[in-house]
Amino acid sequence: FFHDALGAGKIFYACLDVFENEPDNGPLCELNTVILTPQVGSYAIEAREAMEKKAVENLIRGLQGIGRL
Question: pTM score, two decimals?
């Protein structure tokens, strides 16, 4: 689905990080409009810290009735 939609220009760009088999070596690897990362991409310390900070900020905003970031 993605390969055809990307090839036809219906989807301009895609970033994907979860695959049935990793690392993925399917037809999406051939497209320069796709970024593929393994599911462990979020294991970097900086990524985890940023996600934790954003989760707490969203929780506080939600409790204050402001909504999501």
Answer: 0.47
Rounded distance, CA 34 to CA 14, Å? 5
Contacts of 45 by beta carbon, 8 Å cutoff, 6+ apart: none
CA dihedral over 30, 34, 35, 39, signed as positive or negative: negative
How many angstroms separate the CA atoms of 20 and 49, rounded? Answer: 27
Positions of the chain with pLDDT lower than 50, given as ranges: none
Helix (H, G, I), strand (E, B) or coil at 44: coil
- Spell out the residues 6+ positions from residue 23 whose beta carbon is closer than 8 angstroms to its own: 36, 38
Model confidence over 42-58: pLDDT tens digits? 778 888 899 899 999 98
CA pair distance 42, 54, nearest whole angstrom: 14
